[in-house]
Design a protein that fits this description.
alpha+beta; flat; two-stranded antiparallel sheet; 12% strand; two-stranded antiparallel ribbon
């Protein structure tokens, strides 16, 4: 006795090995898992203890409740240092060893 996996395609049951997948891997939606449970680095301002956080929602609520903000993921526009022509020439000379 052999087992077959059947899938429904266009209203008909077909052997899974005989038909193409509905979604190709590069077109399928990406699913992110929830955060694993962790102990917060910062203390909760209400009770002074470091809470155990068990997911993204609790993480967001903890940050909001305490007025904390995550840093490190935001994009910072690079600023160009404005130098005068003379300062640029001096920098080039210093870098080239003159």
């Amino acid at each position: 006795m052999s087992r077959e996996t059947l899938v429904l395609r266009n209203g008909k049951w077909c052997n899974k090995r005989d038909v193409a997948p509905l979604h190709h891997g590069d077109k399928a939606p990406m699913v992110m898992s929830d955060l694993p449970e962790y102990r917060a680095v910062a203390a909760d301002k209400h009770n002074g203890k470091r809470p155990l956080i068990g997911g993204r929602r609790q993480h967001r609520e903890f940050l909001k409740r305490n007025g904390y903000r995550e840093v490190g993921n935001e994009y910072v526009t690079p600023r160009r240092e404005e130098l005068s022509r003379g300062d640029r020439i001096n920098d080039i000379r210093r870098a080239s060893g003159e």
